[in-house]
Amino acid sequence: MSLEVYGQVNEALMYWDDGKESNVYQVTNDNSRTRIGFRGKAKIDADWEAGYRIEIGVRSANSKRSNQFNAKGDGNPADIGLDLRDSYWFVKNKKFGSVSLGMQASATDQITEINQTQTKDFAKYSDVEDTGFGLLLRSAINGRLTNNAVTPTTSATSSPGDNGLTLRRLIGDGGDQPGEGERRFNLIKYESPEIAGFTASASWGEDDFWDLALRYTGEFGGFKVAAGVGYGKVTDGYYLQTKTVCAGRADAAPGVASTDQKCDQFGGSISVVHEATGLFLNAGAGVKNDDYLKKQARFATVAGVDDSQDFWAVQAGIEKKFNEFGKTTIYGEYYDYEGGANSRRTVTQSDALSPDPGAAHGWAIWGTGVEVFGAGIAQGFDKAAMVLYLSYRHVESDLTLKGLTGATSGPASGAIRNAPVEDVDLVMTGAIIKF
Q: Rounded to 5 degrees, what angle do the CA atoms 250, 239, 112 make?
């Protein structure tokens, strides 16, 4: 059995401006974070082989969890340091495909972010959460941060505003785009052999989910094309086991919260590169539906509840070897997300985001929206297996709230009000080196 050691280091400086305050943090770029891995395989006979993969992620600081009070992003200590990304074995047959078992990527992992260019390592066009979306929301009315967080905490395990709304909470509550699968599942997965550029895969994992995906790679007419579509369903279980966030949970009994979930999602993406000119286009989209949201006590008696989420994103530019060092990438991008209600979060009547600070009730999240406009440049250095990059993103957010009958509980039967949020500007510059 062979052994190959591989990995990468991806560290950056991240500048942010939330409309009132700005700063620069040194972070691990979570678009493709620092990691080290071990993999190997061995032939059993002419048609069969077996192998394994173990991969460990490394974060010195977390680019998607840092906030105005916490440069490292370690409000949850598990968000920095080491984490297990892969630990599985596989058996593969040339004619019938492969089966793998253990902690690994699901069939739909990265299905909405297929990308043949250098931007996949530092500015994923559809997974915008990874660049600065741990920042707390700042009210555009009073200039204060959500959760009234104004001074550092003395706690070793939390920072002020940990219970407040961050940018990522506006994207399906967890920050992952609708339609996208995940890594770090305990699952069994089947992958078919390639037929005319197409491969199919399916996975099932605890507790419980399953998904299906179809991918294509090929070249024709001077274009390199990579594309994929996938469908996934969470049928039961606690979200910390499945890693998929459904915004609603089932009620075991009226007024009693349960950890059960049930949602399904569909997504896909395509990446096209014109080999002669280097012009490229990456595009992705996805939708998620939450079957339990309308069964929540908060929304069960309320008309007009939206239990869906959707997004689309596009990135286009040119990637070509203009100099002897390696490829240069210049691009622009746009991302748009629209989401419905959320039963996991509330805004208190005294919060900075409250539309009516004098109200006797809190607020339910009725709808969210995120728009991102971005651009960037990167330079590859082939001899060093390194890419230097600079990316910029301007983030505009929408937050709509609906009054609760109680401060933090009861049906959302009150008025619908907007909660204006300050725009955010984000700049990331750094390098990734692979080995």
A: 110
Q: How many helices (H) and strands (E) does the chain have?
A: 1, 21
- Determine the residue type at 155: S
pLDDT greater than 90 at residue 394: yes
Which SS3 state, helix, strand or coil, does residue 82 take?
strand
CA angle, residues 189, 194, 199, in degrees to nearest 5: 50
The predicted pLDDT at position 246 comes to 81
Half-sphere exposure at residue 351, Cβ-oriented, CA atoms within 13 angstroms = 28
DSSP string over 206-228: TTTEEEEEEEEEEEETTEEEEEE
- From start to end of 249-290, where are the E strands? 251-253, 256-257, 263-274, 279-290
* Residue whose entry in the numeric block shows the structure tokens 């991008």: 333
Helix or strand holding residue 242 (H, E): helix 239-242
Structure tokens at 230: 């996938």
> Residue 219 and residue 199: Cα distance in Å, rounded?
15
CB atoms within 10 A of CB 367: 19
Find the mean pLDDT for residues 310-315: 98
Can you tell me the distance from the alpha carbon of 355 to that of 351, in angstroms, rounded to the nearest whole number? 9
pTM (2 d.p.)? 0.93
For 208-251, what is each residue's pLDDT tens digit?
889 999 999 999 999 999 999 999 998 866 555 556 778 776 65
* Pairing, β 223-234 against β 263-274: antiparallel
Rounded to whole angstroms, the Cα distance separating 217 from 116 reads 10
Q: What is the pLDDT of residue 61?
A: 97
Do 397 and 19 touch, CB atoms closer than 8 A? Answer: no
Short-list 357, 342, 326, CA closest to 399: 342
Between residues 235 and 350, which one has the greater pLDDT? 350
Residue 300 DSSP symbol:
T
From the centroid of its chain, how far is CA 49?
33
Tokens of 91: 């058996």
CA separation for the pair 125, 119 (Å, rounded): 8
